[in-house]
Amino acid sequence: MGLTKQYLRYAASAVFGVIGSQKANITYVTLRGGEKGRYVAVAACEQVFIWDVRKGEKVLILQGQKHEVTFLCPSPDGIHIAVGYEDGAVRIFSLMNGETNVSFNGHKSAVTVIQYDGLGARLVTGSKDTDVIVWDIINECGLYRLRGHKDVITQALFLRDKNLLVTSSKDSFVKWWDLDTQHCFKTMVGHRSEVWSMALLNQEKRLLTGSADSELRAWDISYLQEEKAEGEPKVKKGKTLLDDDDDEDNEEGGDENLEERILSCKKAGSILREARDRVVSLTTDRKARVIACHGNDSVLELFTVLSEEEVQKKMTKKLKKAKKKAAAEEAAEPVVERMLKDEIIRLTNIKASAKIRWADCLSCAGGELKVALLLQNNTVETYSLKTSGKTPTANKTSRLTIGGHRTDVRTLAFSSDNLAILSASGDTVKVWNRSTLQVIRTMSCDYALCSLFVPGDRQIILGTKSGKLQIFELASGSLLETVEAHNGALWSLCLAPDQRGIVTGSADKTVKFWEFELIKDQGTGQKRLTVKHTRTLQLEEDVLCVKFSPDHRLLAVSLLDCTVKIFYTDTLKFFLSLYGHKLPVLCLDISHDNTLIATGSADRNVKIWGLDFGDCHRSMFAHDDSVMFLQFVPKTHLFFTAGKDKKIKQWDADKFEHIQTLEGHHREVWCLAISPNGDHIVSSSHDKSLRLWERTREPIILEEEREMEREAEFEESMAKGDVPVVPGETQGEAAPAGKKTVETVKAAERIMEALELYKEENRKMEEHKYACEHAGKEVEPHRQVILTTTPSRYVLDVIRKVRSSELEVSLLVLPFPYVPELLRLFNSYIQQGLEVELVCRCLFFLLKIHFGQISSNQMLLSVIDELRMNTLSKVHEIRDVMGFNSAALQFLQREIQSKEDVMFFADATGRLEEKKKKRRKRERAILTIA
């Protein structure tokens, strides 16, 4: 058998060029020992970057997996940050070390909102799948799923003092939920269009909502349970909130009575925004004293919520003014009504340098307000203003721009030494250090479409949309010359193999040849590089791509009529025409040995042609959208293609095989560049990111690669599966929080395997015992499976290793025949005091979902009765131990505090004595001198 061809894997190395992705919000975070308002967290595709806005540096990167980040929410204590993803997953990262230990998976589509409760113990998430899920962070599990909205969830807020939740959605409704009963007790229908955001103000006694118009609607909340007279008994939550059982005639108004007994919402008025379009985001500071909102423009509007004292002062002044006016006009005693505009007043507007996508604000000491803005052009800006001033003006404190382009990167190039990367966009060209990913040079340019490093790597040449050639010098970062090369867009640029000139192709239907020249600069007298036009090839259609063959014999030109024409370089005579693509060829490349030409088209196909006779060797369906870029790996017949389907693929032009797919970009991939040694690839995308890929020493086996692709497809189909149905439960407003995933199915399989092993080991032990009794002596046992622990402990270890957030769904997948054995094991675990909390959680869940089958099974009655006795006694024991330990810790805390107080006073008295001694010495010295 002959040797198989070996391919080496390219792996993702780094993501750079993106400052902040537009999909997720910006938020202030506090790092250990860092000052308030210095660090901001933004999404960067699937990662989260923590930026130090003062230094303009990345201080921490929270690594994601493959899905894009869609929402960020820091915890109240500032130690953690919850991150929501495109696939519906939520992960909680530590801001101390950037690691994640807690992850939740319950939504079927992108997470749109995350909020912590006041203590930071619960988390609420909303999604595009219209569900709201409440998670328990301490137990790392889902509590319940709330259903009721019909469109994307836009905001969800916990009420601090009440166990209530308020949610808003694009279905124009705001819903109030009682979390004790998981019931929606009130739906506000006062909006005519989508509710895009909301905020709670005035100690949660006012709700402010932003919709698709210029109004911010305010609603007064009155909690009616608090307003009851002292002698009147309080109404309990749950069923007793409804009318009495004997009032059957009043059943229809039950829900109305329920909502009226918890709270009532009445419209208090509206605040008019200056912008006429919809609210894009609405946020407040921690104390809800400042409101920041903006639309689709570049203006952030700031409002301040006055305290009760300030409102009273304002109303007193207003009344005095009205009385003065009434006295002058000899009118009746005036009555001044308290309006919404007296309580919420406009603070100022902040004009950003581009359209605002997200905003966050933070109140600091001394009445200072810090505002962070994530702009739509891949920029972060921060502002500071004093809220206490009469006319507060915002000062720009920092702007993060160097680490990325404002618009999409349309062209990339590697330097000849593989160390520098050139990237050019609609307004700037940047040169990056490949090893550190730091920007070396940033220069302003026209809209760039193609680029290359001039031999020697001291200059670069750009081809622009206006048909110009721009030559830059890297040492000084200056524009040397702008050449009016073409009358249309200059789509393609290729360096001649002899490195003495370039060829350009343009939309003006011409191909032009240029030679490098050194001329004396009139200003400095030094020599500088320029290009001299030598020849022109006139064609009948727009030129999309030009390429020299490596031996400089042929020139391939791609035209708008879907053909590729090949000419002799020296005479410009026509040689071959390659036709077969249904749409224009957007990219092409010629192999190093001049034998093959590969073309990529907007018809999503790649064709490989022989350069001798122009015969098509193979046509391959390459991408699900237009093929945007194609390039051979140097010195090989392997080539890479990039497409609008977000993927980069590697192909073998000899065997016509797809080798591997590089997935990572979240939008269309515009272009890529391969380093001269073939070890690195850099790619750019509409998601504003540049990605570096590195060739590893790991070989690729094609069969395994296809198998991995099939597994990934299966996992994606599993992820889109429905939420599991709990037996005996109606699918109403509340439902289980978990979601069936590949991990939960695997965990259930591991539990089943462990139970099978336990049964098998028990059977063997019984057989061994019977053999010993029959033989009358000890017989050597035959063990096939080697376990480090007993079989029953092995089952417990397997259950303990299941992730807490996936445990309940894994038990739900478990078939019922395994449940009786599991219940017997749980009984023995509780008797021995092993993992009582975990066992109780599993036990109660299994009893809940299999109640009918368990209660009808006579064989399990004795087991259930034993479980009842043992569980109650063991849980009481654990509760007593925890109470004792808690009391002991509180006692120790009091002791330490009292000792610290004593030590403090002792230190103070000791210092006082030292001061007295020094004063006496000084007095004696003065007396002796006198």
UniProtKB/TrEMBL annotation:
Pfam families: Beta-prop_WDR3_1st, Beta-prop_WDR3_2nd, Utp12. The keyword Thylakoid does not apply. GO terms for cellular component: Pwp2p-containing subcomplex of 90S preribosome; small-subunit processome. GO terms for molecular function: snoRNA binding. Its main location: nucleus. The keyword Ubl conjugation applies. One of its GO terms (biological process) is maturation of SSU-rRNA. Residues 234-258, 714-741 are annotated as: Disordered. It is found in: Nucleus, Nucleolus. WD repeats lie at residues 62-103, 104-137, 146-187, 188-229, 402-442, 483-517, 578-619, 620-661, 662-694. Belongs to the WD repeat WDR3/UTP12 family. This is WD repeat-containing protein 3. The lineage of its organism: Eukaryota, Metazoa, Chordata, Craniata, Vertebrata.
